[in-house]
Amino acid sequence: MAPGGVPGGGRPATSTFGRPDTHSRLFARRTRAQVVAAAVCLVLGTGLIGGAVTGAWLADGPEGPGTRHAFAVAGDLWHEVPVDQLFPPTVQGRGAGPGEADRVWTRIAVAPDSGCEGAFDALLGRALAPVGCERLLRATYTDATQSHVTTVGLLFTEADAAGMEALARRFDQERLDRRSDLMPLPYGAKGTASEGFGPEQRASWAISVLTDAPVVVYAVSGWADGRAVDEPQPAEDAMRSGATTAPAQAGLGHEARGLADRFERALRQRAGTPTERPS
After folding, report:
1. Is pLDDT of 104 > 80?
2. For residue 86, what pLDDT is reported?
3. How many CA atoms lie within 13 A of 38 on its CB side?
4. Which member of 103, 116, 123, 206 lies 3.0 to 4.6 Å from 133 by CB, making a disulfide possible if both were Cys?
5. What phi and psi values does residue 219 have, to the nearest 5 degrees?
């Protein structure tokens, strides 16, 4: 504005090239275009990142990226966890007995860790052969009355997740866990309540093939007085309401299933997978 001029008067402001000043309009257009471009890039970038995260989640299964790590951790527990932690001196079984009565089991024998040669009857050994045998750990417990004995076994396999899922599927489809010719063997130790606990004394059993860990968990129960059992019964049958067989009446199905369940749970907690992946 010239000295003494009136604001807003005179010619339109001009650029240095003598054209009307369109800088503000160009700036507005460019700003809008840049905002749109930035938004598109943000959406694409977010989509790529989200896709990568989703792909990783799907690759690792419903539990997320920790699943494969937990599977590997579980496979190493046999040589990284002390025996008193893998097989505690006492195990609490709240609601594990008939009628949801509480149980307490006391460890009376621990077998030396070993391979699987001679540790299973021939048929069960062949059924488990596809997953291999890294290590077998066993311990035997007795109940508070010392009238029952139960051997718990942890078979650490050489299989990957796919191998464990295949074995679990076969056990489920063919009901191998319910066949009396595929019962696990007990472990009896001299000088304990399990001294007379041999193959003929097996009364009830439970086998679980885990799919979130390279482990087969089993338990087999019997009487501590060494009596032979003519008709052993899988734990699920012996636990049914109204079951009248000797193992069912004695609660030996609850002994086997109760201990097996608690060792499964403890193993998953140590490996970081509190729930099992669906197979």
Report:
1. yes
2. 93
3. 6
4. 116
5. -145, 140
